[in-house]
Amino acid sequence: MPDLRKDPIVGRWVIVAKSRAKRPHDFESTSRMKTGGFCPFCEGNEDATPGEIIAYRPAGSHSNREGWRVRVVPNKFPALEIEGDLQKRGDGIYDMMRGVGAHEVIIESPQHLLSTADLEEEELREVFWVYRDRLVDLKKDPRLVYGMIFKNVGEQAGASLEHTHSQLIVTPIVPINVWEEMTGSLEFYNYRGRCVYCDMIQQELATEKRIVLDTPRFLAFCPFASRFPFETWVLPKSHSSHYENIQKNGVEELAAVMREVIGKIEVALDRPAYNYIIHTAPFDSQELPHYHWHIEIIPRLTKTAGFEWGTGFYINPVPPEDAAAFLRDVDMDARTAKTLPVKKTG
Amino acid sequence: MPDLRKDPIVGRWVIVAKSRAKRPHDFESTSRMKTGGFCPFCEGNEDATPGEIIAYRPAGSHSNREGWRVRVVPNKFPALEIEGDLQKRGDGIYDMMRGVGAHEVIIESPQHLLSTADLEEEELREVFWVYRDRLVDLKKDPRLVYGMIFKNVGEQAGASLEHTHSQLIVTPIVPINVWEEMTGSLEFYNYRGRCVYCDMIQQELATEKRIVLDTPRFLAFCPFASRFPFETWVLPKSHSSHYENIQKNGVEELAAVMREVIGKIEVALDRPAYNYIIHTAPFDSQELPHYHWHIEIIPRLTKTAGFEWGTGFYINPVPPEDAAAFLRDVDMDARTAKTLPVKKTG
């Protein structure tokens, strides 16, 4: 069972898992992404993963057999384990608890596709819907307080398998970056009485210069203080703090937006490695007036060096205004343009 | 002139520099480290760098000529620029200022060595002393409030040149991670009346299990909530908030400790890429009872994925107790053992 340990200075929780590796030399090289050969996520190889938690498949078809469209399975090498109680405890000035939680893999397609933009819009809707389904289910567990959904594409982004998939880690603590967003946005709300994310949306819509895509329900833009070149955020225009409260029509539009934005990034940057992460409010809160769920998409173009690691202080060589202009100008194929109710800016 | 821009949610400052690159494809690949061929940092190639700010060289020798032992020059591609005023201003909900600051390179040896542990102890003392000299000089500038000293070794750690060097970035703002350490340690101090770092030192000395090296003035240990495998911190045992207040005898011992700890990491992990970062208090504060300067050494063994980026929540596959035990057991060469007043633990 892994530990959850808290840094006594800044309050950051870390998962410390006892690895199978026995000697330091086992950690020498960075992990390689498996490409080619057998893929445990492809249709027909259902036996190669742990049994499915949920799958969208035709009525009457058998679980852990062919025929599924989206499939959620436990991670074979979980960072956290679902059984047992937390055993919160201190050790002198240190705080820790058992590494209880969930670590699941969302296999986004039965086919060996590589990226979000390779999926059809209809398929992608089911991916964003199954995220919601899993959060709704897992938040019933009183031990767990936060669900992180993220996707790694490409070796530079930390992917270990290339078949398009995302991951869900559900934890008994709130991760520090989310905690900082929660407290920072609360401070703004207490001072101004408004949601800082709603204010950003208003200002971005007014100036237009950092907008990548503007649809009836969503806004995609490169944030004013982008840490990374071509960093792009997607926000719902209507205030909402919890991703899992999204409705069917929201998911339909979100799938189209994510497919187009990631497609634009892939055309502009020649299919870079990338991550996206859904930032949403903790389970144990009701709808919050100060927090606003959003998705951060980060192409992995630059190597972060000691400077960034040590200080959280980033050097971004591409102004977000330039990045957004590049992305707006990317021509997408006719099909995407036809099915999406897009109001292009610029 | 680059911008400094502040994220309105969490308060993180970012340097946004207008790159020379004109098209998105110029950012496609991660930067490669230059190896072999001409090295601008080697003795005899002084013309290949901007003119030196300070160098330790024999009296009577000429600046920007051969004969130096340690040499500090402006970064040829600075992240911040030293001229002009800050022009702090708002843009709607956003805050920004001009990217005023200093970005310097400390060339640690006239010879083409690759790592801190390759330097003789006497050479390394001058490196740690010149850090102090530059901080003392730059903190006289009332526009500047923070000096970050860091070192990148190896391509995976973000180095672009292999000749052993470190960097100094001096900024008009406090970087967010340092700010978090300042506020977190103040909170601990207000609650308990003690420095949290001093408490950590006491507890680590009592349990011994995470100690890597214990000398009269310094303690090196793998922190309880290590984010990375073999992450190692070096702290002065006597409370001190500002690195630049270090004395000659402190620098002498610190050089020996850093050389031995990095040497151990290099033997154990077969010369991995690594970073170290000096965490110190802002210029505009007097000696602080709650903050404690320290050095964080981070071997770059694992690729951080979307999970860590998005949440600040790390998965560390090597418990710090195991890492410290590995490092304690590494045999260093006789010379190091002879010259260092080492009290080994374990």
Please explain how this structure is put together.
2 copies of one chain form a homodimer. Chain A is α+β, with helices and mostly antiparallel strands and 346 residues long. The first copy, chain A, is 26% helix and 21% strand. The first copy, chain A, contains 7 helices and 15 strands. In chain A, the strands form 2 sheets. Chain A has a 10-stranded antiparallel β-sheet, with helices on both faces. In chain A, a hairpin with a 6-residue loop joins strand 1 and strand 2. In chain A, helix 1 packs across helix 4 (248-269). Chain A is globular.
Question: Nutshell version of this structure?
Answer:
In chain A, 26% of the residues lie in helices and 21% in strands. Chain A is of the alpha+beta class and 346 residues long.
